Amino acid sequence: MNKPILEVKNIWKTYHVKVLGGLKTYKVVALRGVSLKIEKGEVLGILGESGCGKSTLGKIVLGLETPDEGEVFWFGISLKNLDRKTYKALRPKVQAVLQDPYSSLNPRYKIKEALLEPYLINVSPDKKEGLSKAQELLNQVGLDNSVLEKYPHELSGGQRQRVALARALMVNPELLVLDEPTSALDVTIQAQILELMKTLKERYQLSYLLISHSLPVVFYLADWIGVIYFGTLVELCHKSFLKRLNHHPYTELLIQSYLDPFASSQVIPEIEVELNPPTSNRCVFLNRCPVKRKDCYKTNPPLVKKSDLQYIACFNI
């Protein structure tokens, strides 16, 4: 049986934030025992509000940060205590496309140099082969070869994101971590980039970890959807289940907030903003939950399998 492309087991991450010139320190739990996996060819969308921990999860998956507890597995191999030789061999297989394509491209590099650099380091020292691959990938992402001689500031936001996608593909990856890949773009450009990402996934047999605050973006691209609230994975379900009943209360609020705004019978609920994260073992959604009960004050409910295609962390579902 093939190993998952990515597996995350019981990941915890805490930050200690200093305020008032270092006189006071706050403990912020960014991730609380998150576990998930991505099989070959799958797209897992991670959905949640700003500050919920989804970008921290992306950094840990990429190996840019180390979890306090838990393990990350690439292709069945744990990143914990991984030797440099094995890590170097695996590193090109997991790449990232970030929210701001301008900040992820060196402003001093022409696009040609930005594309060639990862290829020459990780694939082959042959510049001619690298340039040929760069031209091929630019064409695949809908850009002309003349872009090679331009600098990032000479391109539009949509063009820069296409370059970022091409650069990620230069090293023949199997998993792309897409952290808010369309949020910095105009709506019309967002649709084009999403369609492009779907095409590239099929063409190169890629798997995606898609991180976004936008339900429509996640619904369009993902096979599975994970909902995170204050660092806790409160629901994991197949996309086909999203239009059904019986979701976590937080997932329900997210779904209702994206219903047709022109439907006369629709009442979009007001979502209270909770500024302070939970500080005890109680349910993380307790303060905003419309169906809370006594158990919710005592412990944070575990993620429980409701069917083969749905897992929910709620005592009332």
TrEMBL record:
Coiled coil: none annotated. Transmembrane segments: none annotated. GO terms for biological process: peptide transport; transmembrane transport. It comes from the Bacteria. The keyword Transport applies. GO terms for molecular function: ATP binding; ATP hydrolysis activity. This is Oligopeptide ABC transporter ATP-binding protein OppF.
